From TrEMBL:
Domain of life: Bacteria
Domain Integral membrane bound transporter: 369-490
CC annotations in GO: plasma membrane
Family according to the record: Belongs to the YccS/YhfK family.
PANTHER family according to UniProt: MULTIDRUG RESISTANCE PROTEIN MDTO, P-HYDROXYBENZOIC ACID EFFLUX PUMP SUBUNIT-RELATED
Keywords: Cell membrane, Membrane, Transmembrane, Transmembrane helix
Keyword Transcription regulation in record: no
Protein's organism: Roseibium marinum
Protein name: Fusaric acid resistance family protein
Transmembrane intervals: 12-32, 44-62, 74-95, 101-120, 127-143, 149-170, 357-375, 381-399, 406-423, 452-473, 479-497
Length: 696
C-alpha cells in the first residue's frame, strides 16, 4: 500500500501542498469564527466557509511551481474570488426581496462567462472554473439577506492566509526532493536489473508494473527539475539521462527474455558476467562520487560457443551494460522544461473565447437546476455544482470526468454513511477525519480523480453532519444529485454542438509522427538545438496522449474503467526516445566505419548501404502509418544486416555492439509504429482524412 502511495507522490510535493491547503482552511475558518464574535449580525459558519474556500480555491487552482510564481498565482486567483464575492454581495443587496431569483440568473451567467474563458488557456482557464464555483457560495450565503462587505472581506482574508501558509511556511526543497526521487529511481532500477539478469526464469524479465513505476518516478524527476528552474547549483542525473537509463534497462530485459534456455544457462553460470552485473547493480543503486571505471567485458570471450541468435542477444546485453555505465557518469544540473509562450489574452480576445463551451455550460446549468427544482430536491445547487465539475472542453473528457465523479462520490458517501453510526458520538474524531481528507484530495486530484472525488464526498458528508447536525438520510441525496448533474452535463455535451476529438487526434498524431521522421533525417546540430528538438517531440507526444484519451473515451466509454491503453500511450511517448537512440547509434557506427580503411573483419564494404537501407526501412514505416497502409517488409534486410556482423569479428568489439544497438532501436521504432497500427482506435484516429464527414 505504501509503495502505491509513493507512486502517486514520491517526493511529497502534493502532500505538502495538501497540508498547506488543510492548514489554510483551518486557519481561515477559525479566524472568521473569531471575527464573528464581534459581528453578531452575520452567522459565524457562513463567514468561516467563505474565508476557508477562498483560501482553498486560491491554492487548489494554482499549480505547483516556485515560491514567487505560486505567490503571484495565489494573489491573482484570490483577487478574482474577492471580486466575485463583492459583485455577489452588491447584487444581493440591490435586488432586495427578489435576491434569490436574481442570484440564480447571475450564477448561470457567471458559469457561462467562466467557461468562455476556457479558450484563453493557462491561468484564465483555471480562473474561469473558480468564478463558476465561487458564485455558489454567493448564492448560498446571500439568502435570506445579503451580508454586504463581509463577503469580499472574507475573500481577501482567505487569500492572505493562503499566501502566508503556502509561501512563508516550510515546503519541500526541490533539490532534496530531486535527490530523494533519484535515489528511489536508482533503487528500483537496481532491483529490476537483478531480477532480470540473475533470475533463471523468463517470467522475471516481464516488465509489468515495474516499467510503470520507473515511468512515474521519471515524471516526478522532471517535475522537480521544473521547480528547481534553470539556476540549479548541484549536479545529478538529469531527466534526459534517466529516460535513457530506463530504455537501456529495457534493452537488457528484452534481450534476456529472448535468450534460449542454453543461452540463459551459460549466462547465469558465467562468473565474470555475474560479477559485472552485480557491480553494475551497485553502481546504479548508489551514487558514485567519481566516474565509474569501465566494466569488465572479458566474460564475453567464450560467447562463440553459443548459437548465433544467443550471441546476438548477449552482445545486446553487453552494449546495454556499457551504455548504463556511461550514462551513470553523466552528471549535470537538472534542466527545467521550457515554460512556453505566455498567455496572449489581448490578441484576438473575442475570437479565443470558447463560446461553444459557454453555451453548453449555461444550458446544462439551467437544465440541471430546473430538474432539481422540478423534483423539489433539498439541495438543488449540488446538481449544478456537479455540472460545473464534469463539463469539459471535449466530449471524451466530459465522459471520463462524469464516470470518475459519479463512482468516486458514490463510494465516498457510502463509506461515510457506513461509519457515521459508529462515530456519531465522537464528533471530534469525525471532524478530524473530514479535515484529514483534504491532503488526500490533493494527493489524488491530478493523478486519479475518482479517488479524489471519493474523499471529497466523504469529507462533505462527515463535515456537514458534524457541524450542522443534519439527518443522515439527507446525505443519500448527495449520490443522486451527482448522478443527475453528471447525466445533464454529459447529455448537453453530447447533444449540443459536441466537440469530438477525432480530427484533433488525427492532426496531432500526424504532426508527431512527421516530426519524428524529420528528426530522424535532420542533420546533427549543436547540443542545444538537439535538446530543443527532443523537448519539442516530448511536448507534442504528451499533448497527443492527453487528446487520445478523450478520443478513446468517445469511441469506447467503458475504457474509462480500464487501464489497458496505458501501454500504447507509453509507446507513443517512448517513440521519440527510440528515434534519438537510433540516431546516436547510427552516428557512432558511421563514425567508426569512417576511421581509416575498412577492415573486412570488422566492417563489411556494405556497411554504408545497409545503414541507408535501414533508414529507408524506418522512414517507409512512418509513411505507411501516415498513409494508412499495411506494415512494410524488406525480407532481405534482416539477413543482410545480420550478415554484416562477420563471424570472425571480436564479439566485444565496439563496432559490433553499436551495430547491434542500431538494429535494436530500429526494430523498436518499427514495433511502436506497428502497435499503433494494430490498435483500432489509434489507427482510426491517425488515418482520418481532413474531410468533415471523416472528422464526425
Amino acid at each position: 500500500m505504501c509503495s502505491g502511495l509513493l507512486r502517486y507522490d514520491p517526493g511529497a510535493i502534493r502532500l505538502a501542498r495538501g497540508v498547506d491547503l488543510m492548514l489554510t482552511v483551518i486557519a481561515a475558518a477559525m479566524l472568521a469564527e473569531w471575527l464573528g464574535q464581534f459581528e453578531t449580525s452575520v452567522p459565524a459558519i457562513p463567514m468561516a466557509v467563505l474565508a476557508g474556500f477562498a483560501g482553498a480555491f486560491a491554492i487548489l487552482f494554482t499549480p505547483v511551481s516556485t515560491r514567487s510564481q505560486e505567490a503571484a498565482g495565489i494573489l491573482r486567483m484570490g483577487l478574482i474570488i474577492t471580486c466575485v464575492y463583492a459583485i455577489g454581495a452588491l447584487a444581493g443587496t440591490l435586488s432586495g426581496s427578489s435576491g434569490p431569483l436574481v442570484l440564480e440568473v447571475l450564477w448561470i451567467g457567471a458559469i457561462a462567462f467562466g467557461f468562455a474563458l476556457d479558450g484563453l488557456g493557462g491561468f484564465w482557464q483555471r480562473a474561469g472554473r473558480v468564478i463558476a464555483l465561487s458564485w455558489l457560495f454567493v448564492f448560498i450565503f446571500n439568502q435570506p439577506h445579503s451580508h454586504g462587505l463581509w463577503f469580499p472581506v472574507m475573500g481577501a482574508m482567505g487569500t492572505a492566509i493562503a499566501i502566508c501558509i503556502r509561501i512563508f511556511l516550510w515546503r519541500p526543497s526541490p533539490e532534496r526532493t530531486y535527490m530523494r526521487i533519484e535515489k528511489a529511481f536508482r533503487q528500483a532500477m537496481a532491483e529490476q536489473l537483478e531480477r532480470i539478469i540473475l533470475s533463471g526464469s523468463v517470467e522475471a524479465s516481464a516488465n509489468g508494473k515495474s516499467a510503470a513505476q520507473l515511468s512515474s518516478l521519471r515524471a516526478e524527476l522532471q517535475l522537480s527539475a521544473d521547480l528547481i528552474g534553470q539556476g540549479a547549483a548541484f549536479k545529478r542525473l538529469p531527466p534526459e539521462s534517466v529516460v535513457m537509463l530506463q530504455l537501456a534497462l529495457e534493452v537488457v530485459r528484452d534481450a534476456a527474455s529472448q535468450l534460449t534456455t542454453a543461452g540463459r544457462t551459460w549466462l547465469l553460470h558465467n562468473s565474470g558476467f555475474r560479477e559485472t552485473a552485480l557491480r553494475l547493480r551497485d553502481d546504479i543503486a548508489h551514487e558514485q562520487k567519481s566516474v565509474p571505471a569501465p566494466l569488465d567485458e572479458d566474460w564475453m570471450q567464450d560467447v562463440g560457443m553459443l548459437s548465433r541468435d544467443d550471441q546476438f542477444q548477449v552482445v545486446r546485453i553487453a552494449q546495454a551494460f556499457r551504455r548504463l555505465s556511461l550514462l551513470l557518469s553523466k552528471y549535470a544540473a537538472p534542466a527545467a522544461r521550457s515554460a512556453g509562450a505566455p498567455d496572449e489574452v489581448a490578441a484576438g480576445f473575442w475570437h479565443r473565447l470558447s463560446w461553444r463551451l459557454a453555451l453548453q455550460a449555461a444550458v446544462a446549468a439551467s437544465v440541471g437546476y430546473g430538474v432539481a427544482a422540478f423534483f423539489d430536491l433539498n439541495h438543488a445547487y449540488w446538481v449544478t455544482l456537479t455540472v460545473i465539475i464534469v463539463l469539459n472542453n471535449s466530449l471524451g473528457a466530459t465522459i471520463r470526468k462524469s464516470v470518475q465523479r459519479t463512482l468516486g462520490t458514490a463510494g465516498g458517501v457510502l463509506i461515510a454513511l457506513a461509519i457515521d453510526p459508529l462515530l456519531s458520538v465522537y464528533p471530534d474524531i469525525m471532524l478530524t477525519l473530514a479535515v484529514l481528507s483534504i491532503p488526500a484530495i490533493i494527493l489524488f486530484f491530478d493523478r486519479n480523480y475518482a479517488i479524489a472525488a471519493g474523499f471529497i464526498g466523504f469529507m462533505v458528508v462527515i463535515g456537514l453532519q458534524t457541524v450542522l447536525h443534519l439527518p443522515v438520510i439527507e446525505f443519500w441525496a448527495r449520490i443522486y444529485d451527482t448522478v443527475i448533474g453528471a447525466a445533464v452535463g454529459l447529455g448537453v455535451s453530447w447533444l449540443l454542438f459536441p466537440r469530438r476529438t477525432g480530427q484533433s487526434t488525427h492532426d496531432l498524431a500526424t504532426a508527431y509522427l512527421s516530426s519524428c521522421a524529420h528528426f530522424l533525417t535532420r542533420r546533427d546540430g549543436t547540443e542545444g538545438e538537439e535538446r530543443a528538438a527532443y523537448a519539442s517531440l516530448n511536448e507534442t507526444a504528451s499533448t497527443l496522449v492527453s487528446t487520445a484519451r478523450s478520443y478513446r473515451s468517445e469511441q469506447a466509454p467503458w475504457s474509462c474503467f480500464l487501464s489497458s491503453s496505458n501501454g500504447l500511450d507509453v509507446m507513443v511517448v517512448v517513440l521519440a526516445d527510440y528515434i534519438v537512440l537510433y540516431r546516436e547509434a547510427r552516428t557512432t557506427v558511421l563514425a567508426e566505419a569512417g576511421e581509416g580503411p575498412l577492415d573486412p573483419a570488422i566492417v563489411s564494404p556494405q556497411t554504408l548501404s545497409n545503414v541507408a537501407r535501414m533508414d529507408k526501412r524506418v522512414l517507409a514505416e512512418f509513411n505507411a502509418v501516415l498513409e494508412g497502409r499495411e506494415k512494410q517488409t524488406d525480407p532481405a534486410l534482416a539477413e543482410a544486416w545480420m550478415a554484416a556482423m562477420p563471424e570472425t569479428a571480436t564479439p566485444g568489439s565496439r563496432i559490433m555492439a553499436d551495430w547491434v544497438a542500431m538494429l535494436y532501436y530500429a526494430r523498436k521504432v518499427v514495433q511502436c509504429l506497428d502497435s499503433l497500427r494494430q490498435d483500432g482506435m489509434w489507427n482510426k484516429a491517425v488515418t482520418l482524412t481532413g474531410r468533415p464527414d471523416a472528422a464526425a
